Amino acid sequence: MVLLVAYLGMYVALYAATVCWLRRTFPSLGILAAPCVWVALEWGRTHVLSGLPWGLLGYSQYRWLPVIQIADHTSVYGVSFVLVLVSAALAEAILWARRRWYGLRGEPFPWASPVAAALAVLVTVGYGLVILSASARTGPVNESARSVAIGLVQANIDQGRKWDAAFRIETLNRYRRLTSEVSAGNDLIIWPEAATPFLFEEENMYRSRVTSLVQLSGIPLLFGSPALRRYPDGRPYLLNSAYLLGSDGRIMARYDKTHLVPFGEYVPLRSLLFFLDKLVEGIGDFEAGTVPTVFELPAKSGTQDASP
User: Fold this and answer.
1) If 0-12 CB within 10 Å is exposed, 13-18 middle and 19+ buried, where does residue 131 land?
2) pLDDT given for residue 190 in this prediction
3) How many other β-carbons are positioned within 10 Å of the β-carbon of residue 220?
4) Residue 142: pLDDT over 80
5) Per-residue pLDDT for 223 more than 80?
6) For residue 73, what pLDDT band results from cuts at 50, 70 and 90?
7) pLDDT band with cut points at 50, 70 and 90 for residue 277
8) How many helices (H) does the chain have, and how many strands (E)?
9) Cα–Cα dist 93/113, whole Å
10) Helix H segments across the chain?
11) Number of neighbours of residue 305 by Cβ within 10 angstroms
12) Please, what's the b/e burial string for 248-274 (b: 16 or more CB within 10 A of its CB; e: otherwise)?
């Protein structure tokens, strides 16, 4: 844990050091590089050693719809860019005011960063309002085909007990109870990643409990479970998979996770970090999937189209 925290903290430290150096080297324009540096480091954190892409700054604006519409062109990184640019402009203005307070009155106001931030906000919000307005006027092409009611189940299983075989039935009973509470009126039930603490395709006794639950509710279920496969030489390996079960309990589709979590689902640079193997002992050392998969939900009764 200490090693992982230190690794992630290095990105913030590198950002701070780089921006400070740029401000000293280019006093008038250096602060404008702050959003570029931040976004470059976010992109690096997302991809280096397969990446840890959680908690990116742009995600904080998920409730402010006009601001996040630019993500259709820039992904979340564009939203992060605007946030850092505005923050840097505010910081620059506060530092200028502080210097004037202490008597440095000859220094001109740093207009470059506030003007750039104002333009970025105007373009971002303006674009978002145009997109939202157009969507409100036209609406979905086929409302009945694209409207899906989803029930979300989070059982909040203690990770210290989840993979203990003695608690499997208790885990499944909790999912059964919560699923029954959200089944009414929904077209799909979703459980979390790796929800089942067993190999769904291999362990029939536990698998039957899941399929019978789906058959009883009559609602398709999307959930995560480890999957066992073998190399050509017979050696086994695990995949972190997502399954879509139809209302009859049959497997309709499966996706194998392609973006694995370093130190949680596999150990990167194993030859150098061999001593970290125990970090993934509880859930196994997964192999990455190779292809993306699009699931299609079965058509509702009385409709012709399936909803992706």
Assistant:
1) middle
2) 95
3) 21
4) no
5) yes
6) very high
7) low
8) 9, 6
9) 9
10) 2-25, 34-47, 65-68, 71-101, 112-138, 143-146, 159-162, 168-182, 204-217
11) 13
12) ebeebebbbbeebbbbebbbeeeeeee
Q: What are phi and psi of 281, to 5 degrees?
A: -65, -35
Counting Cα atoms < 13 Å in the Cβ hemisphere of 21 gives: 7
* CA-angle at 56, arms to 54 and 59, nearest 5°: 100
Q: For the segment 34-62, what is each residue's pLDDT rounded down to a tens digit?
A: 999 999 999 999 988 777 888 899 999 99
Q: Which residues of 100-129 are buried (b: 16+ CB within 10 A; e: fewer)?
A: eeeeeeeeeebeebbebbeebbeebbebbe
- Measured over the CA atoms of residue 9, residue 11, residue 12 and residue 14, the dihedral's sign is positive
Q: Rounded to whole angstroms, how far apart are CA atoms 109 and 120?
A: 19
Instruction: Output the pLDDT for position 174.
Output: 92
- Considering the entire predicted model, what is its pTM? 0.72
Identify the three-state secondary structure at position 110: coil
Locate 66 and state its tokens: 């006009």
